[in-house]
Each structure stands twice: as structure tokens, then as C-alpha cells.
Amino acid sequence: MAQHRRRDVLKSGGVVAAAVMVPLAGTEPAAAAPGAPRAAQPRAVADLTLSVNGTRHRLPGVEARVTLLDALREQAGLTGTKKGCDRGECGACTVLVDGRRVKSCLTLAVMQEGRSITTIEGLAQGAELHPVQEAFVRRDAFQCGICTPGQIMSAVACIEEGHTGSEDEIREWMSGNLCRCSCYPNIVDAVADAAKAVRR
To answer: Which end of the chain is more exposed for a tag (fewer CB within 10 A), N or C?
Structure first.
């Protein structure tokens, strides 16, 4: 059986890498021919209607690539939902779609037509705060406030899903929402308080 020495393996790997990186002699980079059609641009869809907090929002000319987060903030004028990392890691943009938590920065707006969307603006009933909002205020479960709308929306779903049996369970089911100010103990206390208030 042939023996492969480390030096031989490195040499052969270097030769292959050089062959891949160096263009063949006489080749030129591809260029678009004059008069060739440009690459396809994102098309605007026809008017989009989203049902948000019980109100229908007609959004004209929404491109297919627009996220639900951007549609809510920039076109529907509902800026309570915050843009954090914009890649689904922090949970600041969490909203409820048909009662389920959704990170709106990872969801296309056109996919949500016909569904019931709830944002932080839709929780309070007039001047009366939702029990989760009230508990967050009482427990001082926020500092900078960027993550708070997403934390609250996720907490509402966490309670509805029945995942508030213990502090560990709350931490586990709220783990998709990050808080840069590290208010986690206060957030857990607020969710536990709100769960008790909702069960009454």
C-alpha cells in the first residue's frame, strides 16, 4: 500500500489550488455583450393586504423580496416591531402570525396575506395594558427597550403554549430572544407573573 507523507499531500494540494485560482492563458473574464438584457430586477407584486391587529392594511407595490418586518415598519407605519440583527438571531422582530411566534425579518410579507398578524401595538386594549406588558413594567424587565417588543410577543406565545411551568422552562422557551442589557432574571419573573395573571 502506498504511503502518503504529509509533505506530499501538502504539495499536491497546493498544485491543485494554484490550478483553480490561476485563469487559463488566453481567457478573459466574461463580459455582457452590448445590447444584452440586464439581469432581472425584483418585480413588484400587485397590491398586498395584510391583516394586522384586526385592521386591514393595503400596501401597494410591495416587492416579492420585502420582509414582513420591513412591510410593517416602512409601509404599514407600525414601528413598534424592532429591527435588531435582521437575520433571525436576536428575536427583536418577533410578531404573532395566526397566534404563533414568527421572526418577521425572516418572513416574506407576501407569504402572510390572509393571515392574522399581531404586533406589539395590538396587545393593549386602549389604556389597559396586556398582562405581559403590565408585568414587564412592574418587574422592570427592560432597559434599552430594543428587544422588549419581541420579548413581550414571545412571552405572550410562551404563556399561550403552556411553557411556564418553571423558571427553567420559561428560559428554554424564551431562548430565541436575546437581551443585550441582560435583563433575563426580570424577564423570567415578568413572564411567570403574567402567566399567573392570565390563568386567573
So the answer is: N
